[in-house]
Amino acid sequence: MFQPGLKSPKLMTSAKQPDRREGDRRTGARRENDAPAGVPESVFDVLGWIAFFRQLTFIRYGVVSVGALAVDMGVFLALLQSGMLSALAAAIGYAVGIFAHWMLSSRKVFQDRVSERGTRERTQQKAMFVVSALLGLVLTMAVVGLGEFAGVDPRIAKVFAIVLSFTLTYLLRNVVVFRAGESVKT
Questions:
Q1: Shared-domain flag, residues 86 and 138
Q2: Do 145 and 92 belong together in one domain?
Q3: Which of 9, 57, 148, 155 is the most exposed place for a label (fewest CB within 10 A)?
Q4: How far apart are CA 16 and CA 19, in angstroms?
């Protein structure tokens, strides 16, 4: 009902309704239960979805991990084929995989948090990256060993170990190795 002194409410057609997901465009304020910023308006916006998922560190880290694992396994299998001892081939493949993971992670996942080249901080990041990889290796060995001791098929234990190792190394690298606020490259 209209009262004197009050502005009459504007009738809005559905085309003029504010988009509740956008929040206040000037301040970027959003409601807590809204979708994350950058979610495409349409499920058919392929380029929008690609851009959205590129923002997600965890997904990028997963893709990089698969790439590094492929390098690790490729080197391992090539060295086995050449007649090298399996333990040595596994160690070399793992080392090359760690190097590939550093190269990909520092350029495609944590690129905004990598320290400047040639600095002590960059050397520390590389060392912590290798330590995180070795911790992942130790966790993998422990899970597979405990699984075998408990009578679990080693292949199943290995899959479980991969999930745990992936999670541990991601957390270490995201929170410790590439922590925000450090000196980063310009």
A1: no
A2: no
A3: 9
A4: 9
Asked if residues 154 and 148 have their Cβ atoms less than 8 Å apart, the reply is yes
Is residue 31, in this structure, part of any structural domain at all?
Answer: no
Closest by CA to 79, choosing from 103, 105, 97, 102, is: 97
Strand partners, 88: none
- Whether residue 32 lies inside any domain: the answer is no
163-166: list long-range contacts, CB under 8 Å, 24+ apart: 164/139, 164/140, 165/136, 165/137, 165/139, 165/140, 166/62, 166/65, 166/136
Quick: pLDDT tens for 27-79. Answer: 334 334 334 446 777 878 888 777 776 677 888 889 999 999 999 889 888 98
Q: Which two tokens stand for residue 109?
A: 């996942």
Residue 123's nearest CA partner among 137, 106, 136 is 106
Average model confidence (pLDDT) across the chain: 76
Q: Residue 159: give the domain boundaries.
A: 115-178
**Which residues, at least 6 apart from 53, have a Cβ–Cβ distance to it below 8 Å?**
59
Task: Answer whether 40's CB lies under 8 Å from 54's CB.
Answer: no
Question: 96 and 151: one domain?
Answer: no
How many Å apart are CA 165 and CA 136, to the nearest integer?
5
* Unique residue bearing structure tokens 């309704």: 17
The answer as to whether 132 is a domain residue is: yes
